[in-house]
Design goal:
Blueprint (H helix, E strand, L loop, with lengths): L9 E5 L7 E10 L2 E4 L3 H4 L6 E3 L12 E8 L11 E7 L3 E4 L6 H11 L1 E2 L7 E6 L3 E10 L4 E4 L8 E5 L3 H4 L7 E2 L7 E6 L4 H13 L15 H13 L11 H30 L1 H101 L22 E2 L4 H12 L3 H12 L4 E4 L3 H12 L5 E4 L21 H10 L5 E6 L10 H8 L8 E6 L2 H5 L5 H6 L1 E4 L4 H10 L9 E2 L10 H14 L4 H14 L5 H17 L3 H23 L2
Parallel strand pairs: 7-9, 15-21, 16-19, 16-20, 17-18, 18-19
Antiparallel strand pairs: 1-2, 1-5, 2-3, 2-4, 5-6, 7-13, 8-11, 9-10, 10-11, 10-12, 12-14
Helix pairs in contact: 5-6, 8-10, 9-17, 16-18, 17-18
Length: 683
Amino acid sequence: MNAGGPNSLFLGRCLFWHEKFTRLEPFFRSSVNGWIPIDEKKRQFPPFGNVFSVDRNALRCVEGAARLFRVEANSRILSDEHDHFVAVDVQVPVEIVDLSTYEHLDDVRRMIVESGLSAERISSQEAVIAMKGRLCVRLRFEFDATDNVWRPADHRGLEQLTIFRLPPHQLLTAKLDGRSYFCPTEPLQSIDVVDWSSDPEFFQRVLKRLKKTAAFQPQGDLSDISRRTIERLATALRNGEPLGNDSRSSKAMTVRLQAFVANLEANVNAVHSVVDTLLSLPFVEGELRKAKDSAVKKVEHELRETLGPKVRQEIVESLSQLTAARESAAMELEEAHAQLASVRQDMALISEDRDRQIAALGSQSTEFLGAISTALDIAKRYAPEAKLKQVVPPWINPDIETGKPIKLAELKNALMDSAELSGVKFDDLIELDALLRAGEIPLLFGADADRLLQVYSRSVAAGNIWRMSVDLATLGIDDLWRHAATGEPTAFASAWEAAKGSGTPILVNIEDLTAAPASHWFPQLAHFARTSARPPNLFISATVSDTSIATGRVRFTSLKHGVPFEVAATAGGVAAAAYQAIFHEARGPVLELQGPILPTCAEDMIADLSRELLEIGATPILAQRAVLVFRASLATMQPQEARKLSLEIPKLVVSGPSTEGLLSHIESSFCRLEELLAAIAKP
């Protein structure tokens, strides 16, 4: 027969004391509504209505002691006279102490904490204290043999004690031997936290916290304790101001202070009232006056006896020191008067000597100044004029605006004339012009690279080229503006500033780009050259040695940010160069950059160019570069030629330049140059 299920709890008492086993008599069974009395115990717990137990919490317990336990079937039944069930998980039940008749919670606290609970009210070490409004706290107790009472065992836990809501059925269930026990099947719901520490501990903790506030510091308002201070302290404690009314940790303390301060203030007022009453009595007032006068006379006598000799000795010592100081000062004053008379005599002699020297130097200075004036007249008459000039290379500050101006619409014919006179390819000249005006940086290499620059500069910039030399010390883009060793401005910086102050084209060339670690700064320079930071009349180019290309020193990073540009030697170029070596060439024209260059069909052309850029996989930045080159090319090329040139830039970056292709171009250029020289050498 089942006694109630594996999760049911039973409340009973011990039948006898024994060291090895015992028997328990169950009286109540747990349910959702608390304890339920057990009827027909013999039928539920055959044969005698008891359960057998060997649990250590049931052994050697006092006869009649209450115990909480579970039951399970007895597997060792030898006869029908043995108990059919055994008790397991035996525990001491938690007793419920009903103090709900007290009106205030602080009264309950004082009974438990300050006075203690008598043995008649509690019989176990753990209990639930039931209070008014179905509130309760759960506490562990220890027996105080001195006062024969039970007191809370955990004093620290009383500072933050949790208040629970007690289910209503806990107090309505039947009692065992006149005592109520908590049924653990119903959980307790926490609702608040209170401070139940003892009055001495509570007051000491309040004072410790108050000492940390600004009011009790040496310069605070409450540093000088007086009756007024006590009244202000009581008011502050009652309002909870010094403890931080919004602090969660001070909540329990603040609530506790509401009742505590009232008692404290009442006691203080009572003491003050008694003192005031005593002081108002004539007899007490006369005695106090006598005691005060006696104390004053006693203090005066003690001061005379103790301090009189010392004061007299200090006065005598001070007077002797002052007398010695006065005599020493008088002697020093006499010496000073003697020294003053001696100094005055010396000054008179010096003054007479000075007058004689001034009279002697007057005639000598006149003669000396006349000789100096004569020497200056001779120097001015015969000395050549000296001019100091700063020694700088001629390409750092070349002349500006020394040629004849030409319009942008005349640029194509001017470049064509220059190509015919110089022998360079017209296509190379107009492509170089388009790239420079578009903000690109051509990377020139080949036999006629420098000559192409000279021809272009004579066509648009009166032949002026600003040349910037780089080396291993050019580590960053800032080094293009100032020399790393001297800090002086470079040719590049001079060209940049000249372009900002002039509207004519300024051509600056970076000589042998591979001589410096250009991968560190060339991408930034190429980016700035295509933005509004670059003056529009500043054209930037760079030369790369053929040896650097052959050995692979030109990195792909530099090539994709610039535009590789091979310039091969031509037969006409060799002949023109030989002619110009004998006959000096006059200054070339200067280009005026203002003027329209976009035709009416520019929008359609750019749309066609955009589709082609998408086909080769160009990025937005590459597309912008291509359109700028296309726009600049329209001044000297047909739209189809301009579009072809603009597409070379994204193709170069997307596919990457081929070093082998560059080398083949260089080799073919050298072969053509050798054939041309051989033809010229023939009679």
